[in-house]
Amino acid sequence: MGFNVPSGPSNGRIRPRVAHVVGARPNYMKVAPVFAALDQRCTVDQYLVHTGQHYDAAVNDVFFAELPLPKPDVQLRVGSGRHGEQTARALEGLEGIFLDIDPDLVVVPGDVNSTLAAALAAAKLNIPVCHLEAGLRSFDATMPEEHNRRLTDHMSTLLLTHSEEANENLEREGIPSERVELVGNTMIDSLLTSLDRARERQACRDFGIEPGAYVLVTLHRPALVDDTEMLVRTAAALEQLGKVMPVIFPIHPRTQSRLAELGLAPNGGVRIVAPESYERFLSLQADAAAVVTDSGGVQEETTVLGVPCFTLRDSTERPVTVTHGTNTIMGLDPERILEVPALLERELLRRCPPLWDGCAGERAAAAIERVAARAAHAPIPVIREPALCVA
What we know:
Strand 4 (105-109), helix 4 (113-124) and strand 5 form a beta-alpha-beta unit. The longest helix has 19 residues, at 83-101. Mean pLDDT is 90; it is low at 4-11 and 387-391. This protein folds into two domains: 9-185 and 356-375, Glycogen Phosphorylase B (Rossmann fold); 203-343, Rossmann fold, CATH 3.40.50.2000. It is of the alpha/beta class. The strands form two sheets. It has a seven-stranded parallel beta sheet with strand order 3-2-1-4-5-6-7, with helices on both faces. A six-stranded parallel beta sheet has the order 10-9-8-11-12-13. It has helices spanning 25-41, 57-66, 83-101, 113-124, 144-155, 164-172, 186-201, 222-225, 228-242, 253-262, 278-286, 296-305, 320-323, 340-343, 360-375, and strands at 17-22, 45-50, 74-75, 105-109, 129-134, 158-161, 180-182, 215-218, 247-250, 270-273, 290-293, 309-311, 327-329.
């Protein structure tokens, strides 16, 4: 890749090197607070590598502009494709990048194919791995993300978790507790930082809809989108829901492609719109009467926003959003979408999970700098540990 990097730690490297690998938009919100906190601490040199698993330049550029992330040092552009094909392209490219950068620690967030590829490339080069958002389990072996999570966790030196349930999952799998650290949810740091600006936008008014008067929908997982019968039933249910209350549907490119293939176009009260920037989508979530989704991150964001969330999946790797938050698991049953208006009459718990407080990035940064320093055989930074905070 031709990086101009200084020599290794044994030959005079001043600070440890940390490489963050992102590949999909949810990764940006998870990494941004950690990157910003490490940048302020000035204890490591950081590199940002974008695999290009999500490659819509118009949307990606806006995400980077709205979050405290610099332009990536490397853009791989692996693009879309079958899971094995996409993972293999990322693995091949990342191996060469790591050989050039020579990082002391590789940070991988989430559970996408880029996450697994980066962990595998680093592990094969004997580079320690930090998994940000470790320990999540849906216990659904049909989900590609479940395999990515498990494999990445078992290759990682440092596992940063966002809930006690995640710690318990790792303990059951025999991962030593000294490798695990509960830091909280870094994605919520991004949400809380951006929330005031997002609320001011009132993006729903751009569609002629008042705050609190609509349902926001996001659907992209293969179980719903790739199954023709499921997608037909989902489109029909959304059209029926749109007759009761407006529906705003920022559509994933895969979902849009499948609807076009089948000649489906939910209409009436359903407004199908292009993917939104981070702050605009956050604005739509914050002002929604409810959200219908199959996304993991949306379950977490709605929990903090206090917005009822209805998840069209049989399971969730984020059970804390059900026990503490606003999430209801509807099952893989599109017709249950029609229950949403009646279910909105229920009183919700609306309780924020512990450590989802806006300071998770600081706690994660403290753990990362310690492990990176040990890996680089550098002095452990003497910096006051971040205190718990309330956003």
